[in-house]
Design brief:
By secondary structure, the chain is an alpha/beta fold. The protein has 12 helices and 12 strands. Helix content is 38%, strand content 16%. Strands 3-4-5-8-9-10-11-12 form an 8-stranded parallel sheet. Strands 1-2 form a two-stranded antiparallel ribbon.
Length: 335
């Protein structure tokens, strides 16, 4: 099967990719390894040609699963991973964007992946203790050494993007973006468009809230939404009331809520590639089908209107918020 394609700088990828955090981490008990393998292979069979992972996902387990189950099909996909957020000892998470730490994380990733090159390598978060120029310089060295093909940034605002791009062309910028989370619209999307940088939208169905997966805050153990204010208590009850209006609109249009959310993200710019994550093949197939949906300006405006200034609660806990560029923080005011 073939999906439409979009550009992330020099890289050509399917218009919808697959976020590979869910296969081992973040939303409760992870699926059995063999189920993760089936999901990854089904994504490739559906024409998904962009897989996105990171050193920190499952403390390297996501990269190991990709190696085990689909690296023999590497010719079929573009692989992205990330550094800066890592657990060098296999247990303790750190945020370190010093060049030596970046080089070490990259070498461990290549070993886990059984590869000698990663197509797209991101700085996962800004490190306020290290100038962005030094960190991008380390990735520039990795490009020149043939260890990575292109450089990306994650959760960084327009000013940092411009500083990074001045050191080496940036292929992609990744941030959370969905009908509920609109921060990139402040300046990031336009900056990426101006500089010829692709934008990768993670959590495009709002961590399941726009996919019918959140009805209360009785989450499983190890679910990261237990730390996110907008997914808890009175904030969640209010937000689900807003989401009910979105679900009604999706039904009127003949789409599932997840498909409407993905179609909305795709409609916001030709340089945008959403990477929904899932643990279920049925959801994967549902997501991939969203590429065929065309939204009119009135439909897009209707979605915008539902979420304009209506969502309550921060995106992350206070410690997690501290790792994100401040330009991307006040989403409860922008959504």
């Amino acid at each position: 099967m073939t999906l439409p394609t979009r550009q992330l700088g020099p890289l050509t990828v399917s218009a919808i990719g697959l976020g590979c955090m869910n296969i081992c981490h973040a939303y409760g008990i992870p699926p059995p390894e063999e189920d993760a393998g089936k999901l990854l292979n089904r994504a490739l069979d559906l024409g998904v040609t962009f897989l996105d992972t990171a050193a920190i996902y499952g403390l390297g387990q996501s990269e190991r699963l990709i190696q085990r189950y689909v690296m023999h099909r590497k010719a079929e996909f573009i692989l992205a991973s990330k550094c800066v957020m890592d657990a060098p000892d296999g247990k303790t998470r750190v945020l370190d964007a010093r060049p030596a730490a970046i080089a070490a994380t990259l070498d461990r990733a290549l070993q886990r992946l059984g590869a000698d090159r990663i197509d797209l390598y991101y700085l996962h978060r800004p490190d306020r203790n290290v100038p962005i120029e030094e960190s991008v310089g380390a990735l520039k060295d990795a490009v020149q050494a043939g260890k990575i093909g292109a450089i990306g940034l994650s959760e960084m605002g327009a000013a940092l993007i411009r500083r990074a791009h001045a050191v080496h062309p940036i292929a992609a910028v990744q941030s959370e973006y969905s009908p509920m989370v609109r921060n990139p619209e402040v300046a990031v999307l336009d900056t990426c468009r101006e500089l010829g940088i692709g934008f990768v939208a993670f959590s495009p169905v709002a961590r399941g809230m726009l996919a019918g997966a959140v009805r209360d805050d009785a989450y499983e153990k190890h679910d990261i939404r237990t730390t996110m204010p907008r997914f808890l208590g009175d904030n969640l009850r209010h937000n689900l009331g807003v989401v009910a209006r979105f679900e009604a609109l999706a039904a009127d249009l003949g789409h599932t809520p997840a498909q409407l959310a993905l179609a909305w993200v795709l409609a916001k710019g030709e340089h945008i590639v959403p990477i929904p994550g899932t643990r279920r093949i049925a959801h994967l197939e549902e997501d991939a089908a969203a590429v065929a949906i065309s939204l009119t300006p009135d439909m897009i405006a209707a979605v915008d209107g539902i979420f304009a200034g209506t969502i309550r609660g921060a995106r992350y806990s206070a410690p997690a918020q501290a790792t994100v560029d401040t330009e991307l923080l006040p989403d409860e005011e922008l959504a």
